[in-house]
Design goal:
Layout (H helix, E strand, L loop, with lengths): L1 H15 L4 H8 L2 H11 L1 E4 L4 E7 L3 E4 L2 E15 L4 E13 L2 E3 L2 E9 L4 E3 L2 E2 L2 E4 L4 E3 L2 E2 L7 H7 L5 H7 L1
């Protein structure tokens, strides 16, 4: 039985590693380390041999390395399209990270990030958009902000200033 405990002790060594971060986490707050562990558990992977056709909904962060056709809705979570991921879908997520290929419109409430060798063919709607050098993008970008879009839309209306140009002509 001591040998079993010793076998368990190496498995408990990783918790020994979190002990040093525990004082740091304790300085921030005690529940956060538990929350981060839960968040690590809430990441789902779709392997590169998996093909999904239809509607994909979820309430967990998702990494796709396979093929998805249809609609993807992860409104409160992060969607990562891996380097092997091939998506032909309308995408709705909190944040979208593209390392593979996306064909379809992408809507994010937080950010869309197209990384090196990532490809998006479609329109992007998000308050923040990042396109890395070496990435491919074909479409339009609408950087709407919560609460702010109404105000910037009104300053965009100063196209009537074009009318004074008519007067000056």
């Amino acid at each position: 039985m001591w040998k079993r405990d010793e076998a368990v002790r190496p498995a408990s060594q990783p918790p020994a590693a979190p002990q040093p971060p525990a004082p740091v986490a304790a300085a921030v707050s005690g529940p956060r380390p538990e929350t981060s562990h839960q968040m690590e558990k809430d990441i789902v992977n779709i392997g590169k041999s998996v093909v999904i056709k239809g509607e994909l909904n979820g309430s967990e962060d998702l990494t796709i390395e396979g093929h998805v056709e249809g609609t993807i809705q992860l409104k409160e979570n992060v969607l990562t399209i891996g380097a092997n991921g091939r998506i032909k879908a309308q995408v709705f997520a909190k944040s979208v990270i593209v390392l593979g290929e996306v064909t379809g419109n992408v809507t994010a409430s937080d950010k869309v990030d197209i990384r090196d060798n990532g490809s998006v063919d479609g329109d992007i709607i998000a308050p923040r958009v990042a396109i890395a050098e070496g990435a491919h993008f074909r479409g339009s970008v609408d950087m709407q902000r919560k609460g702010g879009p109404g105000q910037p839309a009104k300053p965009a209306e100063p196209k009537p200033q074009a009318q004074p140009q008519r007067v000056g002509a």
